[in-house]
């Protein structure tokens, strides 16, 4: 099979690692063409690396992570496996922060810290990993702006399948590398329309593609400044990108339709807004996104009431 030569690596993580929880933020919907979970327990990732397209397969065996990669980007993908799986993640710093908050003179802070500490004990293998690929995280984040998830995921699937590149190696059927920035710039207006993405999001992605090279590398703070300087990209989109590309544990999704209400309900029994969420998360500064992830995994949900965000079909407009 073309592109079937491969490289391998075995990595032994220090401490607990839940592969599924750590990788779960990266696929955009169950049918994401760039990610696949196969019945043998392996996770597959198709990626456009700094050295070209590549495919990564990772599987957990006892206390080790076995990784195999194909394509021009294979060596880069293997080198960055520890980062993808959160080797850099400061779990000890988080635990120390919880202990300090549990000693706060404020009873409400102590209660929140105890609750978060319990959630952390339930999910010791959760890590905040980083892909190191900003533009890869940016395109689906823009598609997810102000729409329901299934609408954005449908657009992402359609565009990647039509304009992406086949993943190298003996891969699961349909595994696809997202299009290059050059290709995103050339997607015609009618195909954005067919995908279900209206002109505003299309323009945002096309413009960002012109600056894609400048967005890569650097710190999360630098990425935040560069991203928010681009038209159509605000605090929510920047946070969604930095959570994934930089593994930033302190990038909560301000402006999200659901998360402030979820955080408020988990801590107080009442929904809140962005300002209220940030106030509740303030004792956890440095790890606010991590705390949100733990709350999402808790299963706690506010009662369903009020209007739901409806899916829209722009293809009929």
From TrEMBL:
CDD domains membership: ENDO3c (cd00056)
SUPFAM superfamilies noted in UniProt: DNA-glycosylase (SSF48150)
Catalyzed reactions: Hydrolysis of alkylated DNA, releasing 3-methyladenine, 3-methylguanine, 7-methylguanine and 7-methyladenine
Entries under InterPro entries matching the protein: Alkylbase_DNA_Glycosylase/TA, DNA_glycosylase, HhH-GPD_domain
Keyword annotations of the record: DNA damage, DNA repair
GO cellular component: cytoplasm; protein-DNA complex
UniProt GO BP: base-excision repair, AP site formation; DNA alkylation repair
EC number from the UniProt entry: 3.2.2.21
GO molecular function, a single term: alkylated DNA binding
Descriptive protein name: DNA-3-methyladenine glycosylase II
